[in-house]
Amino acid sequence: MYQFDPKALHLAKEFNAQPIGKHSAELQKVLNLFRGEAMKDKYVLVCTEPHKRWVLSQLTGVRGEKVRMTNHVFTDIDEAERFVFKLRWKKYTGKELRD
Q: Which residues form the domain of 41?
């Protein structure tokens, strides 16, 4: 499995500057790791109103079961993506990202 240095904060800065779009090869490897994790308890964004509203949710890991929706709602997709990135960063590094 790919591993990265949790001190590589330049990757978080790159993601925060442009959450959606083309990324450097180094950041893309980290994103592939984050996005390729097991389905159980994986954080995802569920679009509840096209192009306007996303809800932070978690997958159960069981095919056919509904996702667990939270009360955390976003109206900006970039903000939502940054939030999920921070959650995944903490999961993989044990360290919280600061704004």
A: 9-93
**If phi over 0 gives left and psi between -120 and 50 gives alpha, with beta otherwise, what is residue 31?**
alpha
Q: Is residue 71 part of a domain?
A: yes
Distance CA 22, CA 29 (A): 12
Cβ pair 54, 48 in contact under 8 A: yes
Domain count, the chain: 1
- At residue 76, φ and ψ (nearest 5 deg) are -130, 120
Contact (CB, 8 A) for 39 and 14: no
Helices 77-93 & 25-35, crossing angle to 10 degrees? 80
- 37-73: per-residue pLDDT in tens? 999 999 999 999 999 999 999 999 999 999 999 999 9
Check residue 33 and report its DSSP letter.
H
- Considering just the CA atoms, what is the radius of gyration of the chain in Å? 14
Instruction: Say what the pTM is.
Output: 0.92
